[in-house]
Amino acid sequence: MSTKILIKTVPENGNLLLVLPEFSNQQIEIRISPVTQERVPFSDETAIRQPQQGFAQSVLADAAEDIWNDL
Q1: What is the DSSP track for the chain?
Q2: For residues 56 and 50, is the Cβ–Cβ distance under 8 A?
Q3: For all residues of the chain together, what is the average pLDDT?
Q4: Cα dihedral across residues 5, 9, 15, 19: positive or negative
Q5: Taking a C-beta distance cutoff of 8 angstroms, is the pair 42, 5 a contact?
Q6: Whether the Cβ atoms of residue 60 and residue 53 lie closer than 8 Å to each other
Q7: Which tens digits make up the pLDDT trace of 19-63?
């Protein structure tokens, strides 16, 4: 999976052109938000969202995974 983060200044007319040839013929997700001084870096943002996915909790709570504790 390829991720691209772009910070652009929107001109007065409100039109913004994105040229993304590496994503040609693919469906993409675009999120728009103003950049602020408090902006969370992408890696921190990802770390914050990961617990919400539930993967770690489900693996850690799985009894089959407890075999590692018996070593």
Answers
A1: --------PPPTT-------GGGTTS----------TTPPPHHHHHHHHHHHH-HHHHHHT-GGGGGGGG-
A2: yes
A3: 77
A4: negative
A5: yes
A6: no
A7: 989 899 999 999 888 887 666 566 666 666 666 566 667 777 777
